[in-house]
């Protein structure tokens, strides 16, 4: 009962945060972490012990699957070079650079444990990046690189974290063995994601052949897909995170959606939107719930002079160190890309100083880092306490909060003016796609209408075809570059929309009256209300915009 009440309380505050974020000008993850910290700060407040493996299983697969599914695949493929450079190269660079810096700054942390903390801090948080970084401020190319990096570096960071922890436990480390294990974990993780997609496709295919299968069964297959991918990979000792990301990236290309009924597709879209919001909010509130307990247990190694100033300064210096390492690596990658372009006689597209700085600040840390560091073992193999465990947990939590705070405060100022005003390239691409699709539809309709038949049936068919084609012509006019044509199309579309919405409202009122009188039962009313709701949603989605 206590667990159920706790879950309901967390979900209630997730809902509240969705309303409060409109009133306070802070990113939603920062607000949710603050809510969680406020709930846990009193002595009698909410407290929960996180099981890291359960935490990763419940939250990470669906969130990364959703981000990977919605990520622009064409852009990620075009930018695969810098993305892999950050997702793999920067992880190793961070482990070495940050590990030595941490050991120098806090000598009480053994070097191998410092490398473990550096490994778990190297992945950026995909959820936090997409929530904090304003797409209207950051250039599209940089945003795509950040998204791709955050989807892939979780796997490389956590795999290296496991190796460094194993080295701390055994006292030995083999670079060759670690490299081979890393490659195997990546390869098996990708294959596990593909296998999960195959299982989901076959399941949907079987369900589609069974008559009267409820749409909810097909929706459930899509909900289970990221968890199946994650569990298969983890069972094989590979990266479950990379398996979930692979499944998300390939779902759109696999064609498994064609086995789903239309109603199941609509329900899946709605359900995933709700689940992503719920998991996102719950994740950051749970992260906030951990902070008061961690802060109260400030390790004595950081309080030799001042209880508050010295720990805060250490966390700030470490966060700035991470940002500095990112900046240096991005700068080096920029130079390498320019040289490669010159050798290949291609046009170079280097980042400017402010874009590099924005990309460095935007590399925030989040829930994966906290879950990973909390999974540190309590003791070594000989039974002695794991060295500096409480200290590195405190530092990891502090860096998470500090990176989120710096990104929230500094990124808008750094990125302001980087995006030139004017039409977004995606908007122009959308207009071209709408015009092309509408022209194809008109040609097909006109071809079907003029099939050579005669008589009243042929006249009726031509009249209906003209009525349907006029909808597509208006859509072309709305995408026209000429202001007059677009204005006229918007006005006619607005009038038609008002009339059709008025008719839908009258339908709804009459159905409610019939239900109250007992002329129809609840089943009939629910079916018709659902149809009306879908029609209304489609109409409002077509509402003309400037």
Summarize the structure.
The protein has helices at 2-20, 28-40, 52-70, 73-78, 80-105, 111-121, 126-132, 140-170, 175-209, 215-235, 240-254, 262-296, 309-343, 353-361, 367-374, 389-415, 425-449, 456-478, 483-517, 522-541.
Structure description:
InterPro entries: Cation/H_exchanger_CPA1, Cation/H_exchanger_CPA1_bac, Cation/H_exchanger_TM. GO terms for molecular function: potassium:proton antiporter activity; sodium:proton antiporter activity. With 546 residues, the chain is mainly α. The chain has one domain (1-423): Na+/H+ antiporter like fold (Up-down Bundle), CATH 1.20.1530.20. The chain has 20 helices and no strands. Helix 5 packs antiparallel against helix 6 (111-121) and helix 9 (175-209) runs antiparallel to helix 10. The two termini are 52 Å apart. The relative contact order is 0.11.
Number of discrete domains: 1
CATH architecture: Up-down Bundle
**Poorly predicted tracts of residues:** none
- Give the fraction of residues assigned to helices: over 70%
Task: Provide the structure class.
Answer: mainly alpha
Beta-strand segment tally: 0
What is the overall silhouette?
A: globular
Mean pLDDT across all amino acids: 81
- Radius of gyration in whole Å, from Cα? 27 Å
Which secondary structure elements does this structure contain, and how are they paired or packed?
Elements: H1 2-20, H2 28-40, H3 52-70, H4 73-78, H5 80-105, H6 111-121, H7 126-132, H8 140-170, H9 175-209, H10 215-235, H11 240-254, H12 262-296, H13 309-343, H14 353-361, H15 367-374, H16 389-415, H17 425-449, H18 456-478, H19 483-517, H20 522-541
